[in-house]
Amino acid sequence: MNHGTPKRIVVIGAGIVGASLAYHLASKGAQVTVVEAGGIASGVTGTSFAWINTSCAGPDPIAALRGGAIAAWRRLETQVPGLKMRWHGALWYGTQDGRVSSESLLIDRARIAQLEPHLRRPPEQAIFEPEQGALDAVAATHALLAAAQALGATVRTHTPVLGFAVQGAKVTGVETAAGLIEADVVVLAAGTGTARLAEQLGASLPIHASPAIFLRYKAPPGLVRGIISSDTMEVRQDEDGTMLAAEDYVDDAPDNQPAAIAQRTASAIRDELEGAEAIAPAFACVGLRPMPLDGVPIIGYLPQVKGAYVCVMHPGVVLAAIVGQLASEEIVTGQPASALEACRPARFLLC
Fold first, then answer.
1. Which residues constitute the domain of residue 111?
2. Confidence of residue 2 (pLDDT cuts 50, 70, 90)
3. Residue 21 maps to which CATH number?
4. Into how many domains does the chain fold?
């Protein structure tokens, strides 16, 4: 369906997906307003491990989309001031999830020790993904929004959406406490809040708030060069020494609260890494990831009402760059992107 060329676009959500959309839309000449109920990157973006990992276990309905994710981030890195990536690769071992990519290399213990010299007991073999990397998701979101603002976009934080203006089965604006923001297209990119917004427009989207544990530690710099994912830990490290880890959410029992898991994970890291004895937990929380019912991103126009475009997914950090590029092209030109066909919201709404 050709929706014309909108001039005024409101993006709801100032996480990394909304920020990428805002930048790409503004770069294509759209008049963009970003509306955020809290602060920039105050949702799941702020609790993301932020591993740019395009591997997938089993059949992948979004292979075309995922396959362009790394190249899209590399392009953005050259375009957006202050957007810094870390392309040091990732090591996998001791896990049985079967995730592989076309760049996967099977390497031996000697090569593993070269890549990660602080491992106390390097495994006999590991999968090395040289193209994978990571970023500071919060800093990247700020950089993308700053670049969008430099192109004329407006960012309104602490501005909850109260409702929508709809005329003739078409969204014409967003209601806020500060007044109506008129729009030709409204993009719902509010993470786990997207389902509630879509409900106001008559669409029921099955989006589950999937919990995960996000951990941050104070640590000596240089203990981890890239990303290590094993059966005992999933860790990476920033240049200032901050170590990040991710763990599965188990339940809300006292022994499985974030603080308790932070201590257990710290013990595992100390056991695995030489020089990690002094690491100390600095932050631990549960992050709620927006997980569509079938695990596939929901991207595209709502069928019930014109001018309402949905953009929600996991993993948001991985896909933010490529989705921002493709979705903005769809919205501005009206030409559907084939890589997004498996993601359409109509798969849930026209049953």
1. 90-130+209-291
2. very low
3. 3.50.50.60
4. 2
